[in-house]
Specification:
With 350 residues, the protein is α/β, with parallel strands linked by helices. It has one domain: 3-Layer(aba) Sandwich (Rossmann fold). It is built from 15 helices and 10 strands. Strands 1-2-4-3-5-6-9-10 form an 8-stranded mixed sheet. It has a two-stranded antiparallel sheet with strand order 7-8. The protein is globular and about 50 Å long. The N and C termini lie far apart (50 Å).
Length: 350
């Protein structure tokens, strides 16, 4: 993650820092007459329903507030892989991988505040404190005071939320932490470019199909099957402009961006649970993580031939890495004993 790829906040880096990919037929055979889009090309970018990937969806109402968080769920047994998406994405970012993970574990993918189908009293409050409170509140609302073993998985902005939640030790059954393609040093360095990236991306789409096509051709996502699932819930229809616009108003949340990433490496390294860092390139480790990795404080895997959204671009490989992490650390339905982390609902030995 360097300044040219800008892998932090808006998760839109490739579509703006690199020229938009051109259709090969247009560049190689420019003299040929333009052909109108066929029904097949429209179908190629048509939305796909989440059913068949997740098993069900639900709205989690938070007591004493007007906040309602949308979650997608899959699987019946095993630990809970609790997924937090990046800025501008939604819980459906994990749909393709959930179909595989649910064979051996449970999956919960949450639409964070200001994203997807979640609604809150203040959709623009994306402070790290508020988002952490949201996650803890959803876990408590779903599982009460005795939650099952939980593996927090966070992509980019969601990765920072996962790390901060783990650092709070607010989930008594936390059994693992997986961070996807976000590192403190390079994330902070790239923040200066974020507003430019957000303003440079395409803002309006005449149809959902056009938005899906743009995300794939522009390089934001490399897997068309995942784009057809995840892109629709990142949009909303604007009645006055008669077009689709982005659901998340990231450009209005700049005051919170630095708080997402400051101190992230140390919080990650000090979290007293098994840890996995998935990266799309080897140049993304900062000094603290490089030292920690050499000391064996966490497992790191570099996933080749993928963009920033590893879970979308290579869902099979992503799912396999998650399941191997669960197996390697013997994370079962009731969690594993983590030295130094006492679960408050367990009775003490006499």
């Amino acid at each position: 993650m360097d300044s040219s790829t800008l892998a932090s906040l808006p998760e839109e880096r490739e579509s703006t820092d690199q020229p938009q990919q051109q259709d090969q037929s247009l560049s190689a055979f420019a003299s040929l007459p333009h052909r109108p889009p066929t029904q097949t090309s429209l179908q190629k970018y048509s939305p796909v329903d989440w059913l068949g990937y997740f098993d069900r969806e639900d709205d989690i109402c938070i007591p004493d507030s007007n906040d309602v968080f949308h979650v997608y769920m899959a699987g019946k047994e095993g630990p809970v892989v609790f997924c937090l998406h990046g800025g501008g994405y939604s819980g459906l970012s994990f749909a393709l991988s959930a179909k595989i993970i649910k064979e051996k574990a449970r999956v919960v993918a949450m639409d964070l505040r200001g994203h997807g189908k979640s609604t809150s009293e203040n959709d623009l409050d994306l402070s790290i404190e508020t988002m952490c409170n949201d996650v803890v509140a959803v876990v408590k609302a779903m599982y009460g005071d005795s939650p099952p073993a939980i593996v927090l998985v966070g992509h980019s902005m969601g990765g920072s939320v996962a790390v901060h939640v783990a650092a709070r030790k607010a989930i008594p059954s936390l059994a693992g932490l997986v961070v996807v393609d976000v590192v403190e040093g390079t994330a902070l360095a790239s923040l200066i470019h974020m507003q430019k990236i957000l303003s440079s991306r395409m803002q309006h789409f005449s149809s959902i199909e056009k938005a899906i096509e743009w995300s794939v051709r522009g390089g934001t996502l490399r897997n068309i099957d995942s784009a057809r699932l995840s892109i629709p819930t990142t949009l909303k229809y604007n009645e006055s402009k008669k077009c689709y616009i982005y659901r998340a108003r990231l450009e209005e949340t700049e005051q919170y961006w630095r708080g997402w990433y400051e101190g992230l490496s140390e919080k990650f390294l000090s979290s007293p649970v098994p840890k996995l860092l998935l990266l799309a390139g080897t140049d993304r480790l900062d000094r603290a993580l490089t030292i920690g990795q050499m000391q064996g404080k966490f497992q790191m895997v570099v996933v080749r031939h993928t963009g920033h959204a590893i879970q979308e671009d290579v869902p099979e490989e992503f799912a396999t890495l998650i399941l191997n992490f669960i197996s390697r650390n013997r994370i079962g339905p009731h969690g594993v004993e983590i030295p130094g982390l006492r679960r408050p609902f367990q009775s003490q030995p006499k």
